[in-house]
C-alpha cells in the first residue's frame, strides 16, 4: 500500500471535448458533442493506474450543429433530457498496456440504465501551463450499442436498412487540472 497522498484532478472544460459519431442512412456519419460536462479523478500521487473516476454530462447540452436534430435527441425518443438530465460514468483505474496506452473499464448510465463499458485511453502526459497549473492529457475512444441503453428510436429506409446506426463511437479529448491540496 502506498503512503502517498491522494491527488484530486478536475476536467478542464475549456480544453476538453466529449464527442460522438453515429451512422446516418448507413452511408455517412453524424458528429455531435456535449457542451456541458464535469468530472473528477482521484489518484495516488500522479499514478492514474490507481485512479477513481467520476464523470457526468448534461444531456440537454447535446450539439450536432442542427437545432431540429438536437431537439429530437433531447426528446423521449433518445436522451429524454427532461427526465434524465445526466449521463454518468464511474471508473476505477486504468490497465496499463504499455507505450502510454491503457484500458479503462467503468459503468456508463444513460436514461437510468447502467452497463459496463471498456474504453481505450492514450495518456498524453503531465505538464505545467504558464500559470503553474499541473495538467494531464488523455484521448479516450470506444464504442457502444445505443440500444443497450434503451435508445431504440429509428426509421426504416425504403432501400433497406435504417436511418440511424446502432453503434455510437465515442471520442473524447480530456485535459485534467490538478487541484490544490486541501
Describe this structure as you would to a colleague.
This protein has one domain: Lipocalin (Beta Barrel), CATH 2.40.128. The protein is built from one helix and eleven strands, in the order ββββββαβββββ. The chain has an eight-stranded antiparallel barrel. It has 182 residues and is mainly beta.
Strand order of the largest sheet: 1-4-5-7-8-9-10-11
CATH architectural category: Beta Barrel
SSE ordering: EEEEEEHEEEEE
Give the CATH H-level superfamily.
Lipid/polyisoprenoid-binding, YceI-like
As a percent range, the share of helical residues equals: under 10%
Structural class: mainly beta
Tally of DSSP β-strands: 11
Rg for CA atoms: 18 Å
Assigned CATH class:
Mainly Beta
For the record, give the distance between the C-alpha atoms at the N and C termini, rounded to a whole number.
22 Å
Q: What is the mean pLDDT?
A: 90
User: Biggest β-sheet: count, sense, barrel?
Assistant: 8 strands, antiparallel, barrel
* Shape summary: elongated
How many domains, as an integer?
1
Which residue ranges are poorly predicted, with pLDDT under 50 across at least 5 consecutive positions? Answer: none
Number of helices: 1
Please name the CATH topology.
Lipocalin
Estimate what percentage of residues fall within beta strands. over 45%
Amino acid at each position: 500500500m502506498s503512503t502517498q497522498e491522494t491527488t484530486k484532478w478536475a476536467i478542464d472544460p475549456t480544453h476538453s471535448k466529449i464527442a460522438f459519431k453515429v451512422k446516418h442512412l448507413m452511408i455517412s456519419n453524424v458528429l455531435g458533442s456535449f457542451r456541458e460536462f464535469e468530472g473528477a479523478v482521484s489518484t495516488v500521487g500522479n499514478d492514474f493506474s490507481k485512479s477513481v473516476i467520476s464523470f457526468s454530462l448534461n444531456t440537454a447540452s447535446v450539439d450536432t450543429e442542427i437545432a431540429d436534430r438536437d431537439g429530437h435527441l433531447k426528446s423521449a425518443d433518445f436522451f429524454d433530457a427532461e427526465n434524465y438530465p445526466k449521463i454518468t460514468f464511474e471508473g476505477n483505474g486504468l490497465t496499463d498496456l504499455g507505450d502510454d496506452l491503457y484500458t479503462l473499464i467503468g459503468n456508463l448510465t444513460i436514461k437510468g440504465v447502467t452497463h459496463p463499458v471498456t474504453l481505450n485511453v492514450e495518456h498524453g502526459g503531465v505538464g505545467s501551463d504558464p500559470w503553474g497549473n499541473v495538467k494531464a492529457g488523455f484521448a479516450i475512444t470506444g464504442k457502444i450499442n445505443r440500444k443497450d441503453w434503451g435508445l431504440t428510436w429509428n426509421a426504416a429506409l425504403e432501400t433497406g436498412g435504417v436511418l440511424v446506426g446502432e453503434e455510437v463511437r465515442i471520442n473524447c479529448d480530456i485535459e485534467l487540472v490538478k487541484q490544490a491540496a486541501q
